[in-house]
Amino acid sequence: MPASFRTPRTTGGRRALAAVAALPLLAVVLTSCGYGSAADDKDDKAKVAAGAKKIEGLDEVKIGYFPNLTHATALVGDQEGLFQKELGATKAKYTQFNAGPSEIEALNSKSIDIGWIGPSPAINGYTKSQGKNLRIIGGSASGGVKLVVNPDKIKSLDDVKGKKIATPQLGNTQDVAFLNWIKEKGWKVDAESGKGDVSVVRTDNKITPDAYRSGSIDGAWVPEPTASKLVAEGGKAILDEADLWPDKKFVITNIIVSQDFLKEHPKVVEAVLRGSVKTNQWIKDNPEKAKASANAALKEASGKALPAEVIDPAWKSIQTTDDPLAATLDSEARHAVKAGLLDKPNLKGIYDLKPLNKVLKAEGRPAVDDAGLGVK
């Protein structure tokens, strides 16, 4: 479940959002530190090459990500040992999360050094620390969000009015996008309660298919693979969020790093970014192998692989990218402010793309832009 913005304008809103935001602090499987499910037992598949040396003398780098298709770069890079290949004898230690707040907490406590995470928790983590704890250092994925509805109840986008539509969490990335779409339609909804011309029902992605099946919701604005699971249940995708963005691209996953770790171990950060860039290229060059790799990683995490009718369409709707699509993150923050779920944030300095651009230059690739939000 993606994390939510939690800087509302009113005291009552703070209480409401805090209550909701407390829910995702449970990770997939709690470890002794309480942050996520350790993946150390499967790290041995990424063997350290003979004669490899530690980068900057560092024994290990602690990497966090979600076992979601929107984190495909991390899933495949871990599964195929592509990060470890770039890290030499510095061991990649992985921890999996299913909630943004717990990953940000782990980053702040130095339980992880680098993480794959959605835009909402990245913005929230940066603003709550007054710009002191993290930097976004690269992109990872775009797209993969759809409005799926019961075709017996909703024939067109205008029919959404008066219906019950689920989003993953109050103030999360998809919730903000749906509230912004509702506003642009000229309809009115109270952002915090979800009541109005459309009933916005905040529902954990894990139970959204059950809610759809039972008829307690009429549709959902959700990321993959939940969207494809709903289609497999008989739902119909009537809107792809990508169609609402310039060039059909918008950030769904970023790479973040602890500012202290970036300062102390810049070469290790470059190695992880190099692994990310090469993993994204491998995914593009080997789409079927990459899909199978991601599904194998999901099976290891959950005990069950996604069926073909779910993973095939879900995989096609997500694009891996090195570009963090910074302008779209800024737009997402402005949408949250407009919805009343976020005080106007100061995002100057949230990006440091110098290490990524150094890696891209070495690969003969063009530099990416921070939309004026980079560290000086």
Automatic annotation (TrEMBL):
Record's subcellular location: Cell inner membrane; Periplasm
Pfam families according to UniProt: NMT1_2
Gene3D superfamilies membership: Periplasmic binding protein-like II
Principal location class: membrane
Signal peptide boundaries: 1-38
Segments traversing the membrane: none
Keyword Transmembrane helix in annotation: no
Keywords: Cell inner membrane, Cell membrane, Membrane, Signal, Transport
Similarity comment: Belongs to the bacterial solute-binding protein SsuA/TauA family.
Protein name listed in UniProt: Aliphatic sulfonate ABC transporter substrate-binding protein
